[in-house]
Amino acid sequence: MTQRSRTRTRADNEPRVLLALVLVAVGVSAIAPRVYGTWLLEVAPVLLAVPILVAGYSRFRFTAVAYRALTVGALFIALGAHYSYADAPPGEWLRAWLDLDRNPYDRVGHVIQGAVSALVAREVLLRCTPLRPGRWLAVVVTGMALALSGGFEIVEAFAGAVTGNVGEVYLGTQGDALDAQWDMLCAFGGAIAVQWMFHRTHDRHLTERLPRSS
């Protein structure tokens, strides 16, 4: 087997490995979570996204950069779903280290949400539309990431209104009346940061690895 073939094989196997990692993490997170109803609400994006990505794998295979970002997002969700975002241990460690008034795990989660959605949107736009790398692409991608973030806030508000205590834990506002606005600001920052930091790497992966979608 040539070096090129080995590289291609690793690239083909990586999405399967990442998928297995996500499925194991979600399964482990389901073992005695703080509140099962909240766990289900939290992991719902992963449970919806995985079948879609698997079903469309043969027609639209994302780059390794996008799959890795999606995996980080899914693992973050799984951990938060198990403990609840307001009580996640990494957030408590960060809270103590920075002497914060609240557990910031959800804030970090929204930064990751903005970054992941921006990478995915960027890839779809570059492969399926006439848009090319540049300012207009960044504007559209950022707008799409913000739209997704706003959609999540609407869903969260609705869930909180109809599910009582489960929804209160799910919202995890920790007494902040401007929680939704801060969440969207974090998503905005994540979307901007990931495009600034990884656009060259993303473009290289798109050029080297993938054909345009059919």
Automatic annotation (TrEMBL):
Against InterPro entries, the record matches this protein to: YjdF (IPR058534), YjdF-like (IPR014509)
Q: Which domain of life is it from?
A: Bacteria
Q: Which residue ranges run through the membrane?
A: 40-58, 65-85
In the UniProt record, does the keyword Transmembrane helix occur?
Answer: yes
Q: Which UniProt keywords apply?
A: Membrane, Transmembrane, Transmembrane helix
Q: What is this protein called?
A: DUF2238 domain-containing protein
Native source organism of the sequence:
Actinophytocola glycyrrhizae
